[in-house]
From TrEMBL:
Protein name in UniProt: Tryptophan--tRNA ligase
Binding site for ATP: Q9, P10, T11, G17, N18, G145, D146, D147, I204, K213, M214, S215, K216, S217
Quaternary structure, from the entry: Homodimer.
Taxonomic lineage of the native organism: Bacteria, Pseudomonadati, Pseudomonadota, Alphaproteobacteria, Hyphomicrobiales
Gene3D superfamilies given in the database record: HUPs, Tyrosyl-Transfer RNA Synthetase
UniProt entry keywords in alphabetical sequence: Aminoacyl-tRNA synthetase, ATP-binding, Cytoplasm, Ligase, Nucleotide-binding, Protein biosynthesis
Stated family: Belongs to the class-I aminoacyl-tRNA synthetase family.
Residues spanned by motif 'KMSKS' region: 213-217
Subcellular location per the Swiss-Prot or TrEMBL entry: Cytoplasm
Length: 350
């Protein structure tokens, strides 16, 4: 069966990038898949957040999931730290993953900066924990933005090495299925998870710099649209978004070398579930002074109902806490089965 897992870090205000690149896709997958959506609070510890901010941000991501339309009865929503199996499996994976693999992760290089010696071990080992999040549920598909592609490849590498290293043990215990791993056929326990990266919103860029990802941790609030922004904030940020002075081109080839223009076109395409081609069919030739108010109107129409529902849910977080507790119980039951198998496979007595 196809099983979807994904997560968002509670590390600040969610952006339109997180919504279009991830949460909107989470919602779309609900009808066809069994879905598990996590608020990855253990991952957020890598930036040493203030404890109260972390708790608040954790509830806020859960509120965004619910407000965006995730059905918490049918699917599972919970916070990562509740299910101790994530941390346990991450340790096993730390012993599978190689230093070289993790050293090549561009997110680590970016976030650690120049002072590598001073980066936390947690930041370095982040992708092992992410692999554990996914594989604790033996998820087959993970909807993410383009920036997470490399981490997903690492998840596959970890699954593949685990399956190879323990192939005969997995067979002996009758816990695996035959899988093709490179040129060999082995008895695999973990699936090779597929990323789901697609649509117009794989990478929403900063409103101030079309070459940088829109990110919750960007120091400039004008660089992003937050899911908590007011309608006026959204209109202002789009009005002030950096652009060039040319009108919009009539086809996508004309967007080459125009990163900011391409970004605004991509945002409208993602918001309206169309393509940049279709956006340019309708808006090609228009000046930004005409295009931006339209984009703002559409963004407000989609974001505002989510913002107000998030605000309503956050006013009394008891419902959110109940959702997280209930989701945590259901997730625990599933992850516990995986860990029982893994303990047997690797030889840990319980
Ligand atoms: N700009 C983006 N465009 C498309 N998708 C994006 N995502 C993030 N930014 C964009 C996707 O959102 C999901 C959750 O991200 P995360 O919070 O786990 O971590 P991140 O990718 O590091 O996101 P941020 O906003 O950039 O956070 P900070 O600033 O804390 O590092 C992922 O699926 C991601 O691809």
């Amino acid at each position: 069966p196809e099983r979807v897992f994904s997560g968002v870090q509670p590390t600040g205000n969610l952006t339109l990038g997180n919504y279009l690149g991830a949460i909107r896709k989470f919602v779309a997958l609900q009808d066809t898949h069994d879905c598990i959506y996590c608020v990855v609070d253990l991952h957020a510890l890598t930036i040493a957040p203030d404890p109260k901010d972390l708790m608040n941000a954790t509830r806020s991501v859960a509120a965004a999931y619910i407000a965006a339309g995730i059905d918490v009865k049918k699917h599972i929503v919970f916070n990562q730290s509740r299910v101790h199996e994530h941390a346990e499996l991450a340790w096993v994976f730390n012993c599978i993953a190689r230093m070289g693999w993790l050293s090549r992760m561009t997110q680590f290089k970016e976030k650690a900066g120049k002072d590598r010696e001073n980066a936390s071990v947690g930041l370095f080992a982040y992708p092992s924990l992410m692999a554990a999040d996914i594989l604790a549920y033996r998820a087959t598909h993970v909807p993410v933005g383009d920036d997470q592609k490399q981490h997903l490849e690492l998840t596959r590498d970890i699954a593949q090495k685990f399956n190879n290293d323990y192939s005969s043990r997995i067979k002996e215990l009758g816990l695996g299925v035959e899988m093709e791993m490179g040129r060999e056929v082995v008895n695999g326990y973990f699936p090779l998870t597929e990323p789901l990266i697609g649509g117009a919103a794989t990478r929403i860029m900063s409103l101030r710099d079309g070459t940088k990802k829109m990110s919750k941790s960007d120091p400039s609030d004008m660089s992003r649209i937050n899911l908590t922004d007011t309608e006026d904030d959204i209109a202002k940020k789009i009005r002030k978004a950096k652009t060039d002075t040319e009108p919009l081109p009539s086809d996508v080839d004309g967007l080459a070398g125009r990163a900011e223009a391409a970004n605004l076109v991509g945002i409208l395409a993602a918001l309206t579930d169309t393509t940049p081609e279709q956006v340019l069919n309708n808006h090609g030739g228009k000046a930004f002074s005409e295009f931006k108010p339209h984009l703002a109107e559409v963004a407000i129409e989609i974001v505002s109902p989510i913002t107000s529902e998030m605000r309503r849910l956050m006013a009394d977080p008891s419902y959110i806490d109940q959702v997280l507790a209930n989701g945590g119980e259901r997730a625990s039951a599933m992850a516990a089965e995986t860990l029982a198998d893994v303990r047997q496979i690797v030889g840990l007595i319980k």
